[in-house]
Amino acid sequence: MRGLVVLVTLTCFATAQHQALIDYLERRLLAIEDRISLWHEQTTRYASELRELKQQMVSQLENLDKEKEALRTNLDGVGTRVDRVERELDYLETQNGAQPCVDVDDKLIEQQVTLVQEKQKAKYSKLSDCSHMISNIKAMKILKRVGGPKGMWTKDMSKTSGKVYIFNGTDEDSVYEFATVQDFARSLGMSLSKSLKLPSSWKGTGHAVYDNHVYYINQVQDITVVKYDMKSSSITDSAVFPVQDHVPVYGLTPETVMDLAVDEEGLWAIYATRQNERHISLAKLDANSMDIEQVWDTNCPRENAEAAFVICGTLYVVYNTAQPGRSRIQCVFDVNDMVTNEDAPLIYFPKRYGAHSSLKYNPHEQLLYAWDDGYQILYKLVMKKKLEI
Ligand SMILES: *[C@@H]1O[C@H](CO)[C@@H](O)[C@H](O)[C@H]1NC(C)=O
Questions:
Q1: Whole domain around residue 91: which residue ranges?
Q2: First vs last Cα of the chain: how many Å apart?
Q3: 242 lies in the same domain as 377
Q4: What's the number of domains the chain is made of?
Q5: Residue 27 shares a structural domain with residue 115
Q6: Could you name the domain of life of the organism this protein comes from (predicted)?
Q7: Which range (237-241, 291-295, 324-328) has the least confidence?
Q8: CA of 169 to the centre of ligand 1 (A)
Q9: Ligand 1 closest atom vs CA 151
């Protein structure tokens, strides 16, 4: 009996011990589970915090990018302003005339010139009462940069039209037409323009637009001036320029065999022939019939010439100077013999990019429309009376 009691006690003891172990293990497991869930929670929290951090970083990086962009735009703006100030300074310098050492050349040129001038004293009957000449360049405005290094742009030079025409390059058959100068200035490239295809190709930069007519130079063998009516899209007239043995008129713009100019008196042709190879010749044309009214051999050399224009019957030829980025009116020829090279003002064009491939004078605005290495520039001129020298 006693032995049984001992056995039962032992068994109970063993069972109790077992139970305690199980309880212990359960507590441990619970504790481990607790901890795991804590870790899990923490990991999730870390993960979400990391995500938040990443998002913050991304948005900050974006902000930085934006700031960088703004900074760059600002810098660009500053660059442009510095550019403009430089141009203005340069222009002021032009105004105040740091005078160059070209005087020796001038004397030489003048000596040769008087000889030619003596031979060429035809009387020209003026068509208008204009009697002004350039006194200075008051301002310049760089309007745009479209197209290639060489080309021509001009307004329709009649008083009533405000349209602007772009002859890009030196050998094409289309021109771009803008309704106004403002349209041209704000157009993205040629986007606001109308492209006009001409009946044949044009050569060089010597064209003119007057009263809805394009006068363009076409050259196969002889030089032909084609007068094309843009309103009716038809050729009004076409005249072979009756001069043999042409040579390009400007030494520095060899693509231009002949240059047309409009002034207060009408239409002029600036050209050169092999007979008077070293100098530029000038002809007055009748804009309606395209007949040549009179011709002059001028004293102005072709060598180093970039472009020329006529104001009030006076031819002004612009030359490249020894100073880089500078060009200068260095020869004038007045069909009325009122302005000589000695009277001619010393006029520099402000700092430029390359060489002027064309300079077109508008008598109603007294502006020069210039094409300079793909830039379209306006020069505002100041005039004075021819006799007030
Ligand atoms: C202008 O002409 C140049 C070549 O001189 C050409 O490369 C360019 O595409 C032309 N641009 C337009 C707008 O016609």
A1: 1-96
A2: 155
A3: yes
A4: 2
A5: no
A6: Eukaryota
A7: 324-328
A8: 7
A9: 5
